[in-house]
Amino acid sequence: MSIKMIKVAVAGALLAFTATATVAQEAKSLDELLEFVKQGQITEARENRSREQAFTNAKADQKRLLEQAKAERARQERISAELEKLFEENELLVADKQKQLKERLGTLAELFGHLTSTAGDAITNFETSLTSAQFPNRGEFLTQLIEKMSGSDQLPSIEEIERVWFELQREMTESGRVVAFEAELAKPNGDKIQGTVVRIGTFNIISEEGRYLQYVPEKGTLEELSRQPSGPYLSWAAKLAASAGGEGLQKFGVDPTGPTGGSYLAALINSPNLEERWHQGGYVGYAITAVGAVAFLIAIWRLLALAMMSSRVTSQLKSSTANTNNPLGRVLKVHEDNPSMDPETLELKLSEAILKETPSIENSLTLLKIISAVAPLMGLLGTVTGMIITFQAITIFGAGDPKAMAGGISGALVTTVLGLLVAIPTVLLHTIVNGRAQRIIHILNEQSTGIIAEHTEANLRS
């Protein structure tokens, strides 16, 4: 009995019970109630017979449907057996055809194998080659040719095989040429323009303004490098671009390390310049630079002052009268003011005058000496603090990136270089300034000693 028939029987019983309950509520005596119950039993028996008939009919339908399903299954099994037999026959036919194809191909199979390998290598080379900027979509033809040679239903034509040779030959030929052609290139700000570019073999591509470009294989586009190499390379590139694609001999900076712009060129342009190196020193580097500037200004000031003072002293040596506009004149003025003084007292007076002149002559020499000693120490301070920061970064992020670690150490050593760059010239300037000052002081002592000797000799004669 199906679930549907059970639901029908339950519903009928519920209706009969509901009707009997309703009649019982309306009966006014026991006889009347008994009559109502008898009528209900008759009605229920009639409904049960109707339900049984429905169940019998449904059972017959289910049996008929089952027979139909069995017949359909048998039919599908016959079809499956026929298809399986046909499949086996086709397998034998395909194997026979493949055997015939292999016999007819003969040595061509080995040729197609080498051709497939060569085409695959060519696709890899063409994807990154700068010549693809001038001759795009070469890989599509080679990919289709490889698919054709890998299949068993088609063979490559003579023209297709010759085109593979042509593309390889053209790549070799273009690798040794300097040519100009029209192409679309992207500026660093994202603007795309159409212009003339010059390709130097498979090494570099430059724009008509002499800017170095890079070829992006993933996009198949040319992009101007955001940073350009320094030095004479840009001027050479501009001259080459102006010479209509390389007519005549021109100097040019070629990067031979890669077809997409070159790893050497990338490392060269990513290397910081002097200004960026200076900024790597940070606040300590700025302080060292300021101290060096102060030392340079002091040295220049003292050199100019001592040069003027030396000129006046030289003029005083040629004059017979004391002039108070120079240290020697002021020392000689002491002797002129005291011509009859005894030699011992005159010597003390002259020594006192020289001592008064010495501070102005040796002015700021001590400061230059201090700067020459402090600058390396400041550089060492910057290096130590930079190394501390670098090792803290290694502790947090690890040492998995040697380039980042080397960059931090390089930045830390910049302050040491700055300190030495300040200290070495400062020592040389201090030596020069001190030599000029000592020359003037030596002249003062020499003239003072001569005056005392002449004064003593004059007293002895008198």
Automatic annotation (TrEMBL):
Claim: Zinc is one of the keywords in the record: no
Primary residence: membrane
Membrane topology: Multi-pass membrane protein
Keywords attached to this entry: Cell membrane, Coiled coil, Membrane, Protein transport, Signal, Transmembrane, Transmembrane helix, Transport
Top-level taxon of origin: Bacteria
Signal peptide: 1-24
Subcellular location: Cell membrane; Membrane
Family: Belongs to the exbB/tolQ family.
Protein name as annotated: Energy transducer TonB
